[in-house]
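Sorry, I am new here, but would you mind making up a protein's amino acid sequence and the tokens describing how it folds?
***
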Amino acid sequence: MRKWVNNEGLSSAWIKVMGEGISVHVSMKLEIKDSPGQLVAALTPISEYGGNIIAVIHQREPETSSDTLGVQIVLEIDHERLDGLVAALRRQGVNILRLGEERLLFRQSVIMIGHLIHTDIGDTIDRIDRTGFAEVAELNVQMPAITEPSTALITIKATTRSKMDRALDLLREVAAEKGLVIVEPLEEADR
């Protein structure tokens, strides 16, 4: 069974009732120091509080002069341990930019074809994510050979249908700039 909860000022999160306990499915966007060992240090409290990491998205941008990195984490944790985990992360100096928001209600998948890696797929993803109203939720890349074009199935989530249209327009601009081809489905964005 899944339902919404609101945890004392924290954003809503999906919870799943499992037997006696309540397990929370949480999405976090963290900002950590860009130095060796910081990612492991940020993940350690999750383990200490009994969390189960479902996904970690971490991409280091070597050309960036920032001393911090963004890390997205999806995890499952006992509802009663979430506050302790958040406090432990903050004590370690981890800045929690987003916690448990299920605000991206519209979903659309497209296929991109071209030299995705050579044209910096990370930059393409970041340009969507930086909008604040949309983000790349899934990415599946097929690379037949280093000199051959790659293919990626990209799933974008957005807050509204009109914001999804804006995100897709931005993706089209980026694709044109980088010489990539986008194959779009005929159906509208799912909700």
